[in-house]
Amino acid sequence: MASPLLRKLLRGLLSAGILGSCALGILGLGSVRLRQLQTQALSPALAEAQQALSLNALNRLPKGGLGFNNMIADWAFLRFLDYYGDEEARDKTGFGTSPIFFDVITSRDPRFVDTYLFLSGTLSYQLGQPELAMKYMQRGLDALSPQTHARAYQVPSLMGMDQLLLLGDTTGASQSYAKAANWAAGSIDPQEREVAQIFNRVSTYLNGDPDSSRVRFWAWSQIFAQSRAIDDRKTQARAAKNSSP
Length: 245
Prior knowledge:
mainly alpha
């Protein structure tokens, strides 16, 4: 079955920070030709509507996904990377279909950790819908643990950033960072445990000084790095402005 191989390769690229064109290159193995045929015949708006229809059809499948939930999530994420990387179409129609992509992905495979960086970046920072992003990330929080995925801590850390920077929920952010610290400390990968101290310090700072400019500067710096990794120039510019001394 091709799905585990695709996922292994994709996650290797994500871990190494090789995104953008490389991720789209993987997608090119299967669906680029189909997309070219579609876009030759459809305007960006119609192509987006067609995409939404196909995703909604997936959402109507039985909850168990007929035993193929992981494959459905893989397919949806690869299609999202294609959608995300089509700059010409996104300039015209925006990212309005992104919530449907991530509804499919997080409902079918909430343990797919590598998708949450894109989820937060797109829903929270591109679309300005951090509440929806939190809802979908909660699915990951409910399904993951340090024992099931070495980088499970990334989900509560992303939640903490959205709570701090976009929702103004410093108490919730402190709790999310505390969970990220606990999960990082308990990671099955010893190298991942090193970030636990950072999250602990952030949680402590927020408890003692909810308006800490130092923590906000750090958080926006993290957003800048993350948006750079996924080639989100709009969020990069916003983060650069907010992380300037």
